Amino acid sequence: MSEHVISSKLYYGIWIALMVLTVVTARVAFIDLGPFNTVVALVIATCKALLVVLFFMHVKYASEKLTKLVIVASLFWLLLLLLLSLADYGTRYARHG
Amino acid sequence: MSDSPVAVEHHGPELRHHFSSVEQQRDAASLGMWLFLGTEIMFFGGMFCAYLVYRLWYFKEFAAGSRSLDIWLGTINTIVLICSSLTVALGVRAAQMGKRALLVILLVLTLIFGLAFLGIKGVEWHAKYKEHHIPGASFDASDLVRDYPQIHIDQSHEQIYFSLYFAMTGLHALHMIIGVGIFTYLLYHAARGRYGPRYYTPIELGGLYWHFVDVVWIYLFPLLYLIDRKPLG
Amino acid sequence: MATPVITPERENYLNREYGIKSWLLTTDHKRIALLYLMSITFFFFIGGFFALLIRLELLTPAGDLVQADTYNKLFTMHGQVMIFFFLIPSIPAVLGNFLVPLMVGAKDLAFPRINLLSWYLYIIAGIMMLHCIVTGGVDTGWTFYTPFSTAFSNTKVIEAGLSIFIAGFSSILTGLNFVVTIHRMRAPGMTWSRLPLFIWAHYATSIIQLLGTPVLAVTLVLVVFERVFHLGIFDPTRGGDPLLFQHLFWFYSHPAVYIMILPAMGVVAEIVPCFSRKRIFGYKAIALSSIAIAVFGFLVWAHHMFVAGISLYSALVFSALSYLVAVPSAIKVFNWTATMYKGSITFSTPMLYAFGFIGLFTMGGLTGLFLAALGLNVHVTDTYFVIAHFHYIMVGGAVMGYLGGMHFWWPKISGRLYPEWLGKFAALIVFLGFNLTFFPQFILGYMGMPRRYWQYPPEFQVLNVLSTAGSTILAVGYVLPMVYFLWSMRYGKLADDNPWGAAGLEWQTASPPPTFNFDHEPEVTWEAYNYDQIPAPPEEVSVER
To answer: Which domains does chain C have, with CATH numbers?
Structure first.
């Protein structure tokens, strides 16, 4: 891990951003965007997650490439689980849910 | 490295004997924690997979169930966790800079936020209990069937939504409880002056764990609470 | 026969401290490896006991030894115990724990206390499993398929599920320890391309353990919830999908088979060059193929579900991917064989096991391709063909690799030599017994005998009798090493540092090693498998001290 000491101002800035994004995502849910509601919600969630991971968890300042590799690999593996399962669920007969 | 098998190492008591330097120990600990968080991604991931499948199949019931959750409490809880992440990050910084009193305050604040989150979650679950939305023998979603006549809710599908709701928030809450335990331990040692610029690895690693639990919630919130909040026609 | 040692014995990890506390509270990776050795051997015999009962029942076509429900419990407990409490830990927890720090030149694993915790978790899980067995067992098959396991079985599914959950945690922690150790604690000069292939194999295994086991864990949690709260997630009458369970289950359980085989491949990669007195052929190919197996292994899980109801389109995809995963394994087999070409072969006991591994694993692996073919799969799925296929790999492959490794490193672990002629004899018995047990099962399966049935049509009896006969011979072959290893600890010839003349850092320290592994931190300036520089051992392979 890095020895880099991050300024508290940056932390407060990230905190404000996270709060704003939270309020935004809650408000946007009430607006009809059709199928894009889900997309927008997940994009906002991902932005928030990135802020936490990169700044609060110091990954942006990590000198070790290995840290980033572990994160990327884990997310990739999760994607494998989700997408390959969808290969089955997405191509079965139409369900009347 | 040292030649003599019984070298007198000039280091603090934190350096364990099988490591050759403090840096090596810290790098090993950090990698270990990140790998553990990787396993946690897969652990929660299994439930996200189940959620994905059933949301595709039973979107209507998922939407109705989602609407029955209190969006105010969910949003407040999200904000509470974000605040706790801030105090954790500032706490790591305080340890790095040797500010013991500040570290202690921030750890206490973190614990307060964590317990607040759990308290609010308890309130939400209690509400679900009152509405008979807890899966099992007493599950009864007829209130939702009544409230959304236009979408013909199948109660067993609705129960699947709530099963996943409780399984996912329950697993998350369990991780929060463990986090509270970890931070109580850290608070105890921080108050005794154990952490400082030379050694703050436990604070750093505890912080990583806490942030991870926050990130999981960042995804749970839209996936469980915001499935479909559009105004009904 | 060894004479009593006259000179004072050097201090090593075995004699440094005595007493039960020094073992139960140890953080020495070598002692923990021995703790695991005792535990997994115990569970091996428990699982073997169930196998014996199965084979006894199958001597006759009628279901006349046990009742059908009991038979269901027999094959379930055999599978669960053998997979989770023997095969998955075996090589990593015993040989891996012992050798990984030695091979990379470290004093211990990165997290010794977590290593001990890992063993305790295994023991707790094992006690739970034993309790589950003696209070009635489970009858769902080791695969726990829903909705039988969640809604209908009235056996101890919850206890077994929780036991395996805890065992999984043990496995995750072992993998975590290995990855961090290999990344962070290599001695100076020990670059990635100088690491023994045993290390590469365990690195790949650990990746699988870390990324796959958590999915099994959460799936078992869901099964337990479903059973306790009657949820309906996997119940088709209530909108649930039983196939969702199978997807989540096999996402782990297919890569799990690579957890079981990769370490054995690592063992073979150490044995073959040593007893060919030659550098391994294709070091990079073998190293990278280990990683490839770990990755590809996660892409094929639904080949266990071809007839279960997945879409035909996804079946095509998984079938194609299943062919792909055979390629890196084949690469290994070619490279081991090429290593032996023009080598100076010694048919020592470890080498006999390695030969056995290569031949039997190849057969098992090729029959996997039969199973990957969709059309053929419909015919042989859930028959004895599948059983023969995976036993060829797990027993003919993994267990032989484990035994080969135990014999190869026994001098290092114990400081003693086992009796070589007995070792060769036992290896032969294992090989013969194994083939007699499992080859008839390929034929039985192809002829249509289903698995998990406690009675069968009379025309299958001859082959079943052969199989049972083979299993008793195999059992003898397994008991022999236990006996002579124990014997050797007291009466075996003393071993010197490197009785085989093998390459690798573990052979540069005493047998048995001192507690902190090396008297001086090693500095590596040579490439792996430098057999051109290492003299072959003398005929008389021990030195009286």
So the answer is: 26-346+494-508 (1.20.210.10)
Give the residue extent of every domain in chain A. Answer: 8-89
Number of other residues whose CB lies within 10 A of the CB of residue A57 = 28
Q: Is C63 left (phi over 0), alpha (psi -120 to 50) or beta?
A: beta
For residue C159, the Cα-to-chain-centroid distance in whole angstroms is: 24
How many residues are present in chain A? 97
Q: Which helix (H) or strand (E) covers residue C14, if one does?
A: none
Residues 66-85 of A with CB under 8 A from C: 66, 73-74, 77, 80-81, 84-85
**Secondary structure class of C26 (helix, strand, coil):** coil
* C533-540 long-range contacts, CB within 8 A, separation 24+: C534/C501, C534/C502, C534/C503, C535/C501, C536/C277, C536/C344, C536/C501, C537/C498, C537/C499, C537/C500, C537/C501
- How many other C-beta atoms lie within 10 A of the C-beta of residue A30? 12
Contact B154, C239 (CB under 8 A): yes
Neighbours of chain B (3+ CB pairs under 8 A): A, C
Sequence-ordered alpha helix ranges (H) in C341-419: 349-372, 374-380, 384-391, 400-414
Round to whole Å and give the CA distance between C431 and C480. Answer: 13
Residue of A73, A81, A91 with shortest CB distance to C314: A91
Q: Chains B and C: how many Cβ contacts under 8 Å?
A: 121
Other CB atoms within a 10 A radius of the CB of residue B9 amount to 13
- Specify the number of domains making up chain B: 1
Residue B87 domain flag:
yes
Per-residue pLDDT tens over the stretch C459-490:
999 999 999 999 999 999 999 999 999 999 99
Which residue range is the domain that position B198 belongs to?
41-225
Nearest chain A alpha carbon to B227: A38
Indicate if the alpha-carbon torsion angle B25, B29, B32, B38 is positive or negative: negative
The CATH number assigned to the domain holding B203 equals 1.20.120.80
**Residue B4: per-residue pLDDT:** 39
The H or E element containing residue C181 is helix C157-184
Read off the tokens for A63.
């000198």
Q: Tell me, yes or no, if C247 comes closer than 8 A to chain A by beta carbon.
A: yes
**CA–CA distance, B203 with B208 (Å, rounded to integer):** 9
- Strands (E) in C216-302, as ranges, are none
C536 to each of C244, C276, C409, C420, C501, how far by Cα in Å? 56, 10, 17, 17, 5
What are the tokens at C47? 């699982």
pLDDT, tens digit (0-9, with 9 covering 90-100), for A45-84:
999 999 999 999 999 988 888 999 999 999 999 999 999 9
Domain assignment present for residue B22? The answer is: no
pLDDT at B196 over 80: yes
Q: pLDDT tens for residues B107-160?
A: 999 999 999 999 999 999 999 999 999 998 889 999 999 988 888 899 999 999
Residue B171 corresponds to which amino acid? Answer: L
**Largest Cα span, chain B:** 81
Tell me the H-state helices in B14-148: 22-57, 59-67, 71-96, 100-130, 142-147
Low-confidence ranges of chain C (pLDDT < 50): 1, 5-6, 541-545
As a 3-state breakdown, chain A gives helix, strand, coil percent values, each rounded to 5, of: 70, 0, 30
Closest CB to A22 among B49, B59, B82: B82
CB proximity list for C173: less than 8 A, separation 6 or greater: C114, C115, C117, C118, C121
Give the SS3 label for residue C450. Answer: strand
pLDDT tens, residue by residue, C2-33: 555 445 578 889 988 889 999 999 999 999 99
Is there a contact between C310 and A88 if contact means CB atoms under 8 Å apart? yes
Task: Tell me if B180 is assigned to some domain.
Answer: yes
Write the DSSP symbol of residue A57. Answer: T
